[in-house]
Amino acid sequence: MIEVFKNLYVGNETNCFQELKEEWAVIHACKSPCHQRKVGYKGSLPQNHPEYLISEKDNHLYLNIVDMPNTLSPKYTDPIINRAIQFIEQNISTKKVLIHCNQGESRAPSIALIYLANKGIIQKANFEGAIKQFKERYTNYSPARGIYSYMKVNWETITKFILPLHR
Q1: Cα(88)–Cα(92) distance, rounded to whole angstroms?
Q2: Across the strands, what pairs with 123?
Q3: pLDDT score for 161
Q4: Is there a contact between 25 and 94 (Cβ–Cβ < 8 Å)?
Q5: Residue 57 domain-assigned (yes or no)
Q6: Exposed e or buried b per residue across 133-145, where buried means at least 16 C-beta atoms within 10 angstroms of its C-beta
Q7: What number of H helices and E strands is found in the chain?
Q8: Which DSSP string corresponds to 112-145?
Q9: Could you tell me the CA-to-CA distances from 39 to 54, 84, 93, 110 in Å, in that order?
């Protein structure tokens, strides 16, 4: 687990925990095993299931996200990434936020990169430049083809995902 910004950590499946820890908020950016375990299914869920993309409980956000070899569809990926960015924003001032995926190389760090670009911590004008800057913080970043192409094609849109919060 590596802290990429104050209170924002990126890790892999070995850093995952399911129990409630008041000082932590966790984004589980992996269908298997986390989303499947939380929602209670094997294989796939029907697309009309209310927790098909996202399930949330306490300080945990479970995402049904896989990194396919082809470009991820914005129809499904945009709501997942947008909710993850909002979840970070809602929690980062009062908790440590862990984003993890299976290997800690693609999905979880990509969410962290998008968040940091949205906050202006990493420049967002140039996609490749943003990746280069992020790799200075997280050297293990190695986006798979699906998440990489999704981000490249949709960079302008996804770097506008943070919505104002009203507390």
Answers
A1: 6
A2: none
A3: 80
A4: no
A5: yes
A6: bbeebbeebebbe
A7: 5, 6
A8: HHHHHHHTTSS--S-HHHHHHHHHHH-TT----H
A9: 9, 17, 28, 24
Residue 163 within a domain = no
How far out from the chain centre does Cα 37 lie?
Answer: 18
Q: What is the pLDDT of residue 102?
A: 96
Can you give the pTM of this predicted structure?
A: 0.94
Cα–Cα–Cα angle for 79, 80, 84, rounded to 5 degrees: 115
Which residue carries 């990926």 as its tokens?
77
Q: Which residues on neighbouring strands pair with residue 60, listed in sequence order?
A: 26, 57
What is the identity of the amino acid at 38? Answer: K
Within 8 A by CB and 6+ apart from 145, the residues are 67, 69, 70
Q: What is the CATH number of the domain that holds 144?
A: 3.90.190.10
Q: In angstroms, how far is the first alpha carbon of the chain from the final one?
A: 30
Between CA 162 and CA 144, with CA 77 as vertex, the angle to 5 degrees is 105
Which segments in the chain show pLDDT lower than 70? 163-167
Place of tokens 């919505």: 163
Domain range enclosing 33? 2-158
